[in-house]
């Protein structure tokens, strides 16, 4: 049973809340795979690649805003997760649940998909790459316009650990304190916030801006590193391939990841703390399993 008090339920979006990668899904639906492939072979950073592919799909293939929106509305989102969000958002009083999304997709994709399923009003904040329609073409830019100083292999355009710390600090300053954070993710970009929640702010971003946002190397403020936090890490995709987050957390817990993150956690937390943190990582494979796990944690009726 989790601790009493308000909960922050933080979601990654692709392969976590939805059952697809929204970026590559839309590209496939638009028939722009060859444009995407050439851009990737040219070494474009991901966000720039998405912007390029959408522009070229409009210019060369005649794809329209309506085509993009139709692709987004067809994106699979499991009904049990939609029901879970509705049930979680309906909890009132001291044990209420606030829902946020931290994603490397973009604002138009997430807002459109959530609105299509009647869920957008349930999500308090969405933090993702900004996007807007310009002359019928969707343009996408990076979330961070300046370096984020994170050493946990976050993409240059988005450090979710920094975003999460700033969100928690901003809400705490406004008088909203959380007893715990439940984080759902699958990929490399989810590793930074996961380690932050399992081990605390002092190890959040290699001493960079994210750590400073939580008070630096001193004791981290709850719920960062708190015993009530849980990381719901997807183990594998529908095709059976392992998810990066679960692999990275397993390597980090056993100190065999060969990365600065593994070394810093081993030095600061120690083996016993690492084992305790690993016990707070909840594995899942399919969305209906995740829905059941979260309902149990939040004491929601099935």
Report on this model:
Keywords: Hydrolase, Magnesium, Metal-binding. The active site is at 12 (nucleophile), 14 (proton donor). Residues 207-228 have a biased composition (Gly residues). Mg(2+) binds at residues 12, 14, 186. Its cofactor is Mg(2+). The protein is of the alpha/beta class and 302 residues long. The protein folds into two domains: 7-19 and 77-128 and 147-298, 3-Layer(aba) Sandwich (Rossmann fold); 21-74, no CATH class. The chain is 44% helix and 14% strand. The chain has helices at 22-30, 33-41, 46-61, 65-73, 79-89, 107-116, 160-173, 191-199, 209-213, 244-254, 260-278, 287-298, and strands at 7-11, 97-106, 125-129, 131-134, 137-140, 180-185, 230-234, 281-284. The strands form two sheets. The chain has a six-stranded parallel beta sheet, with helices on both faces. Helix 6 links the parallel strand 2 and strand 3 (125-129). Helix 1 (22-30) packs across helix 4 (65-73), helix 2 crosses helix 3 and helix 7 (160-173) crosses helix 8. The longest helix is centred in the C-terminal third of the chain and has 19 residues, at 260-278. It is globular. The model is unreliable at 202-220 and 257-269 (pLDDT under 50).
Number of domains: 2
Mean pLDDT: 88
User: How does the major sheet shape up?
Assistant: 6 strands, parallel
- CATH level-1 class of the largest domain: Alpha Beta
Strand content: 5-15%
The portion of residues assigned to helices is 40-55%
CATH architecture tag of the largest domain: 3-Layer(aba) Sandwich
What series of H and E elements makes up the topology?
A: EHHHHHEHEEEHEHHEHHEH
Query: CATH superfamily assignment of the largest domain?
Result: HAD superfamily/HAD-like
Q: What is the end-to-end distance?
A: 16 Å
What quaternary form is this?
single chain
Instruction: Assign the CATH topology of the largest domain.
Output: Rossmann fold
Q: Would you count the extended β strands for me?
A: 8
InterPro entries: HAD-like_sf, HAD_hydro_PyrdxlP_Pase-like, HAD_sf, Pase_PHOSPHO-typ
Keywords: Hydrolase, Magnesium, Metal-binding
Biased composition (Gly residues): 207-228
Cofactor: Mg(2+)
């Amino acid at each position: 049973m989790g601790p009493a008090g308000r909960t922050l339920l933080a979601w990654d979006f692709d392969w976590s809340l939805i059952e697809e990668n929204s970026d590559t899904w839309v590209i496939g639906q638009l028939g722009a795979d060859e444009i995407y492939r050439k851009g990737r072979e040219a070494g474009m950073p991901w966000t720039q690649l998405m912007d390029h592919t959408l522009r070229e799909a409009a210019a060369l293939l005649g794809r329209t805003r309506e085509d993009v929106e139709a692709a987004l509305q067809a994106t699979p989102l499991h009904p049990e997760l939609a029901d879970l969000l509705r049930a979680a958002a309906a909890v009132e009083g001291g044990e209420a649940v606030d829902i946020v999304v931290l994603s490397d997709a973009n604002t138009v994709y997430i807002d459109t998909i959530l609105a299509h399923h009647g869920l957008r009003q349930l999500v308090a904040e969405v933090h993702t790459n900004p996007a807007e329609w310009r002359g019928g073409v969707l343009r996408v830019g990076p979330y961070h316009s300046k370096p984020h100083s994170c050493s946990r292999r976050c993409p240059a355009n988005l450090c979710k650990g920094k975003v999460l710390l700033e969100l928690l600090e901003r809400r705490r300053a406004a008088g909203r304190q959380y007893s715990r954070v439940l984080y759902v993710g699958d990929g490399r970009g989810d590793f930074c916030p996961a380690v932050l929640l399992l081990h605390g702010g002092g190890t959040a971003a290699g001493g960079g801006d994210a750590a400073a946002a939580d008070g630096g190397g001193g004791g981290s403020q709850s719920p960062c590193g708190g015993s009530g936090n849980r990381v719901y890490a997807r183990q594998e995709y529908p095709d059976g391939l392992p998810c990066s987050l679960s692999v990275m957390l397993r390597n980090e817990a056993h100190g065999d990841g060969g990365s600065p993150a593994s070394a810093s956690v081993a030095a600061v937390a120690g083996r016993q703390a690492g084992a305790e943190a690993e016990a707070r990582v909840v594995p899942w494979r399919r969305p209906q399993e995740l829905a059941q796990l979260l309902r149990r944690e939040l004491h929601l009726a099935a």
